Structures are given as structure tokens and as C-alpha cells.
Amino acid sequence: MEESSQPLRYVDIGINLSDPMFSGTYHGKKAHECDLDDVIQRAREVGCEKFMVTGSDLVESEEAVKIARNYPGFCYATVGVHPCQAKLFDTHPGGPTKMIEELRKLAIESRDAGLAVAFGEIGLDYDRLFHSEKTPQLKYFEAQLDLAVELGMPLFLHSRAASEDFERLLSAKLPHLPKGGLVHSFTGTMEEMQRLVALGVDIGVNGCSMKTDENLEVVKAVPLERLQIETDGPWCEIRPSHASAKFLIGAPELPKSVKKEKWQKGCMVKGRNEPVAIARVAHVIAHVKGISVEEVCEAAWNNSVKMFGLGVDSV
Q: Which sites bind a divalent metal cation 1 (predicted)?
């Protein structure tokens, strides 16, 4: 395939920039100064032009909106409560109704200000029921789906070991969501992916989506028109033990990384994934699919802009 002369451009549709690690704090302990500006600049230098900052609960969603406000035109927020945080609805001082009201208010205000582009991260996670039990997860996933329908916002979704319930609840709401949604950090089976694609849902791929040979077969089969890419930093880096690592030959090199205790300006931190690594995710996807990196990037860019807008006038 002939290589494109267009510069590569990326949207990192899942990046947790509000995580304390990007402020230099690890496990509650300050290790170095905040280097968020550098993290974003490094990513921009490889062509990452848009960042979707994930909101995982009410507080994190507020922080994601704040980051979007501080980096206008580059960062955009999602607003929602992760399934592992579903218990927060019942422990909220004003109860579940009050928490839904606060989510609605934040989502409307930030959406109308051009800062929030998706409702999420919402969904189900039966791998980690020790965080929130199944009953509140189901109850508040459905409640947040109803809120997303009310607001007309596309979905930023999470599904782990819960495909039957997840697809049942989602399929009932998708007809009322003209912009659809995306299942991010997808690690499910081929059959799950095919069912989601049949529903009209996009698939988000990162390092965790490509750990095993089975994962790679799923990524290979994701239709380009349903593919979006992400890093999910500070997690989900591509590790040497992953099946995807063999496809990194010729991939863009990452900046030098050092231990957090020896942090120095301009360096990555070992074990802390960053959006600059999105170029390597695209490189692996291209190898797995047998197409050019340019084709992967342009398809993913177009899909992200079509679903989330991201301040781009047209695809």
C-alpha cells in the first residue's frame, strides 16, 4: 500500500490525566514535580492532537473538566461514574438522586461549554466485585444510560466479564443515542467484539487490548470503521511480555524513562504509561492488520471525530 504524505495525527480517546501520577504523586507520596505540561507536549510532538480525559467518578469528572478548560482545543472530558465506583451513589451525602442531579448538572454545563464530549466511564465490571457489588453496578449503569439518553451524549463504556448484562442494557438504549458509543480498553472475546460491532458500537484498543495472541486476533478483526485508539495511561502500557511486543520493531522510540525517584524534566517515568505511546499502539495495530500506520491513524481519527466532535468542524 502506498504510504500517505499526510502527517500522522492521533486522538487518545482514553487517558487518565487527572491521575495523581501525572502530578508526581504515587500511592499518596510526592515523588517529583507535576509534569503534566511535559506529558501533553511529548504526545503532541508525535501527532497526538486530541486527548479525552476520563472521568471515573464525580470528583474525577470535575477534575477532567478542569483539565479540559486548562488545555483548550486539546483536552476534552468525559463525565460519569465507573462501575467499580457504583457504590458511591448509595453513600453520597444526598443519596443516589442527588448524585444523579450533580452528574447531570456537571455534564450539561461542561458539554455546553465544549469541554465534555462523552458520558462515561460507565458500564459493568464483574472482575472486580470487591469494589462494587453486582446489584449497584446494574442499577446505576442503567440510571446513567438513561441520563446519557436524556443529554444526547455519546457513551464512553467499560465492560469486563459482564457481556450478557452489559449488552442487554446497552442494546435497549442505543436506538435512542444517535452518536452511539465506544467500549474502551477492549479485552473481550472475538464473539463479544462482533456482537458489539453489530450493535453499532466502536472498539477502543490500547496495550491491554493486545496482551495475548487471542487478543491480537480480535484486534485484527475489528473493522476499521469501528476502531479507535488510546493509551489508558498511566496504565495499559505495551510490555515486553505481551504478544504485541514482537510487532514493535520499527515503531517510534519512546523518550528516555527513569524511576520516579530519579525523575528529571523531559523524561518519562518507568511504569507510568503516557499518551506519547499512542504511536506504538497504532504501529502494532497496523502490523496486525497488515495495513499502513497512516491508514490506521486516519480511520481512528475520523471515527473519534465523528462520534465525539472534539472541536473539529468536519471529518
A: 121, 232
Question: In whole angstroms, what is the distance from residue 64 CA to residue 62 CA?
Answer: 5
Q: Is 158 annotated as a binding residue?
A: yes
Cell (9 digits) for 83: 462501575
Determine contact, residues 46/54, Cβ cutoff 8 Å. no
Phi, psi of 89, deg, nearest 5: -60, -45
Q: Which domains does the chain have, with CATH numbers?
A: 19-308 (3.20.20.140)
**Which set of grid coordinates corresponds to residue 168?**
442487554
In 3-state terms the chain splits into helix, strand, coil percentages (rounded to 5) of 45, 15, 35
Residue 49 known to bind ligand? no
* Cα angle, residue 175 at apex, residues 171 and 178 outer, rounded to 5°: 125
How confident is the model over 124-177, as pLDDT tens digits? 999 999 999 999 999 999 999 999 999 999 999 999 999 999 999 999 999 999
Question: Coil, strand, or helix at residue 117?
Answer: strand
- Please provide the size of the chain in residues: 315
Q: Does the annotation place 232 within a ligand binding site? A: yes
Neighbours of 62 (CB within 10 A): 16
121 is in an annotated binding site: yes
**One-letter amino acid identity for 190?**
M
Q: Cα(274)–Cα(230) distance, rounded to whole angstroms?
A: 10
DSSP assignment of 74-115 equals: TEEEEE---GGGTTHHHHSTTHHHHHHHHHHHHHHHHHHTT-
Q: pLDDT by residue (tens digit) across 179-231?
A: 999 999 999 999 999 999 999 999 999 999 999 999 999 999 999 999 999 99
